[in-house]
Amino acid sequence: MSLFRLSFLLPALAACTGNIQRSARVPHPGVPLASGQPMATAADLSVGLSNVTDVIKPTVGDAGQAVEVPGTEMRDELRLRLGRRGQLALIYEHGFGSTSQIPDETQAPVGRGNVHGYGVSGGYSIQTSTPGLAIGTTVELINWSLPYVEYVTCTSCANNYTTVDHGRGNPTTLGLGIAPSYRSGRLTYFGGAFARNHPTTTRKEYNTDITDRDGDVRSGPFNVLLNAGVEVELQRWLSVTAVVHQDLVANPVQYGPGFGFALTGHLGS
């Protein structure tokens, strides 16, 4: 009798359909907090904020997606010199959930939870014929832990019940950057462009299979940021970097100008 009932139950479960509403908290777009000049010492430890705050509140870029974005995003790097002009870096990013901004107040609230990202990057500073002028290049990979929420309504069930599921997605993003820079004495001026995936999730799905849910948190489209900044050498072992950046792509969110800063300790010889 149990096997007989199970034979009817399994097709019913397989045919469970409904509607899903989602939202995810994702990292704020930012740029590496480095000038692009070759490293002068064996290692650099950089601690800073890739985005201090948003001067203009982010707004909806694509209404079919739903994300929350921390206004304050930390970026720390341990950079190791490779040869004369190369480098390898370990990266940690942390988006503070308490500073999150919601582009559309009608989207599902994610609730509590910070954004975490761990990654690696490699770079090379290309020498030019002009003294002090270099062109820095960067390639990075970061794996993220991002909180999300799903509201799931089973429309194929008799009572159309709704469940709320909180979880974490783990997309990986690719970053590509180029940064021309000019060093004169204790000052280095730099600018450039940096492209990185913007993690996202689909806001709503209708009449879909709801038996296998994972938040649909994915790497998302590439966003391109233009940036300009200055690095000041305070001591031989310490420098400070300030940068402004602007995201040119309004997908999934439209941003205003952002700014970041970092303190960098120069270690070794």
Keywords:
5% helix, ten-stranded antiparallel beta barrel, mainly beta, elongated, 17 strands, Lipocalin, 269 residues, two-stranded antiparallel sheet, 1 helix
Outline of this structure?
With 269 residues, the chain is mainly beta.
Explain this structure.
The termini are far apart. By secondary structure, the protein is mostly beta strands. The chain has one domain (17-267): Beta Barrel (Lipocalin), CATH 2.40.128. The longest helix has 13 residues, at 2-14. It is built from one helix and 17 strands. It is elongated.
SSE diagram, text form:
Elements lengths: L1 H13 L2 E9 L17 E9 L7 E2 L6 E4 L2 E10 L3 E10 L4 E2 L13 E13 L5 E22 L7 E8 L2 E13 L2 E11 L6 E6 L12 E14 L2 E10 L5 E2 L3 E10 L2
Parallel strand pairs: 1-4
Antiparallel strand pairs: 1-9, 1-13, 2-5, 2-17, 3-16, 4-7, 5-6, 6-8, 8-9, 9-10, 9-11, 11-12, 12-14, 14-15, 15-17
What is the general shape? elongated
Placed side by side, the strands forming the largest sheet appear as: 2-5-6-8-9-11-12-14-15-17
Topology-level CATH name:
Lipocalin
Please state the average pLDDT score.
Answer: 92
What kind of assembly state do the chains in view correspond to? single chain
* Alpha carbon gap, first and last residue: 78 Å
Radius of gyration: 22 Å
Main sheet, how many strands, which sense, barrel? Answer: 10 strands, antiparallel, barrel
Structural class: mainly beta
The number of helical elements comes to 1
- Can you tell me the number of structural domains? 1
